[in-house]
Amino acid sequence: MANQKHLQELIDKLHIERNLSKEEWISLISGRTPKLSHYLFSLARKERCRHYGTDIYIRGLIEFTNYCRNDCFYCGIRRSNAFVHRYRLSEDDILTCCHTGYLLGFRTFVLQGGEDGFYTDERMVHLIQSVKELYPDCALTLSAGEKSYETYQRFFDAGADRYLLRHETADFSHYKRLHPLCLSAKKRQECLWNLKEIGYQTGTGFMVGSPFQKAEHLAEDMLFIKKLNPHMVGIGPFIPHQDTPFADKKAGTLELTLFMLGLLRLMLPKVLLPATTALGTIAKNGRELGILAGANVVMPNLSPISVRKDYSLYDNKICTGEEAAEGSKALKERMDAIGYQIVTARGDSLISSI
Ligand code: 5AD
User: Which residues line ligand 1 (CB under 6 A)?
Assistant: First the structure.
């Protein structure tokens, strides 16, 4: 009981000071209880409402290629997975997705893909310019992995507004257990600092419950995110994929993911925080619960239906129901039912980019 009181005080401290020490993060994360979560979520909702009201921003997610040169141990589209049917969308395909999305009310398009050599800088620049020329009132977000400073700069100059690149785990040795040796947490984090310096609205994030993850690693994630002060943070539970080295590992839980969402909202009150597809995959009402824990963004799938099953980062990924763009009426009803409204707006970050 004394412990509960102490942990509740830590939540209050986080609420006031927007920060905790590593030890405090560890105590809070490892000592969490349903009662504390309930308390945390009520404060997180209050913070979210103070800045964003009950608006929910939508982003149209276009998964433009599932070719990837990387071999991350957790990811279903890793290079070594020979069972994946590989595809890439042409520029015309992508523009068609944007057209559909625009009519559905989307004002942000997120181009997400593996690290695919076919999409050279020149092709990407052309694509970015075409999207921005046709949809000048829309924000364009890229999520296409690690690139050089110069390349990020070129994409930015071509018109890209935002970039998502999850740091995955801030702990260097934990990162090594999730990735092949050629990838490093240091490089990943450098990319994020570069993106911020260039002027992107920058998004980072991590998986919750990834193999070998300890409360200490989550504490480091929080400290890293505090330091980076990103505009967006995408988190979701790790979910095993049958054709990866982590096929037999346990999935992350709904409960811990929601707790981390609440903590993130208190730490960075203005952050854009999606209730992710992975959250909607582990629980039917996962995305609603994410909103009620402090999230304020959803990212319905706008990819052509024919390729959606091939962009399978983990098993049983939802992609054709109410979470997809064409299910936007149902999504709207679901959000209305919990007292929130989907809005048609670019939904820029309230955190300044400078
Ligand atoms: N489970 C959950 N999330 C995953 N991602 C990749 N593989 C998985 C998985 N098996 C996440 C990573 C990546 C984002 C696009 O998807 O965090 O950055």
Answer: 74-75, 166, 168, 207, 236, 238-239, 241, 278, 313-314
Contacts of 82 (CB under 8 A, 6+ apart): none
- Mean pLDDT within 83-107: 96
Q: Which residue spans within the chain are E strands per DSSP?
A: 55-58, 60-65, 108-113, 139-143, 162-164, 201-208, 232-237, 297-298, 341-343
Domain 4-343 has CATH 3.20.20.70: yes
What pLDDT was estimated at residue 326? 76
Two tokens, residue 87: 């595809």
Q: What sign does the dihedral 64-66-284-178 (CA atoms) show?
A: negative
The predicted pLDDT at position 89 comes to: 98
Q: Whose CA is nearest to atom 14 of ligand 1?
A: 166
- Residue 191 CA, ligand 1 centroid: distance in Å: 18
In this prediction, residue 351 has a pLDDT band, given cuts at 50, 70 and 90, of: confident
Task: Report how far residue 188's alpha carbon sits from residue 145's, in angstroms, rounded to the nearest whole number.
Answer: 9
Give the pLDDT confidence score for residue 180 in this predicted structure.
Answer: 98
Among 116, 142, 207, 233, the mutation site with the greatest number of ligand 1 atoms within 8 A of its Cβ is: 207
Domain boundaries along the sequence of the chain: 4-343
Give the ligand 1 atom nearest the CA of 246.
Answer: 10
Distance 238 CA to ligand 1 centre (A): 7
Ligand 1 closest atom vs CA 112: 15
What does the pLDDT read at residue 168? 98
- Which atom of ligand 1 is least distant from the CA of 240? 10
- The CA-CA-CA angle for residues 219, 164, 316, to 5°, reads 80
Taking alpha carbons only, the member of 344, 330, 352, 334 closest to residue 292 is: 334
